[in-house]
Here is the input.
Amino acid sequence: MGDRGPGGRRAEILRAAAELFAARGFHGVTIEDLGRAVGTTGPALYRHFPGKEALLASMLLDVSERLAADGRARAAAAADDPRAALEALLRGHVAFALGEPALITVHDRELGNVPAAERRRIRRLQRGYVEEWVAVLARLRPDRPAADLRAAVHAVFGLLNSTPHSAGGLSTDRMADLLLAMGTAALLADG
Here is the structure.
């Protein structure tokens, strides 16, 4: 099951929990179910997380931190070319959406089960990620108010994050191309 070091085991638990929470819901999964999914007992998971809520919070904080860091890096790598930066942001989010649909499902359904302090951190990270996109888009659409650009970014996230429901009928490459084209068109549309 991959790297069995402390970090590898923790990542393994988070992946298994994402799949179980996506399939059965946070309240439909016991700590024993989580333990069985990674080949251990439920109580053994307490070495990695103090409880199921902490596990969920870690999962959603981790993905929010990864997306925020990736967005910053992609925008910075193409800072001289806002069109290339936008494409890089889109490609990064498309790869995430196609590669980790369980996390999208868990976030959509279960964020309310995260303790308030961690939920605020997740939301703060997500706002920063959105603003990274808005800053790039503002360079391409200087005629548009920031509120319009922000709304467009959120709408495109809705499109991209629909993959748990929409990606089944196409190959991953074809779906990625389709999402890239649709996302680009939506972000640059007059409206």
Remarks:
- The chain has one domain: 52-188.
- The longest helix spans residues 52-77.
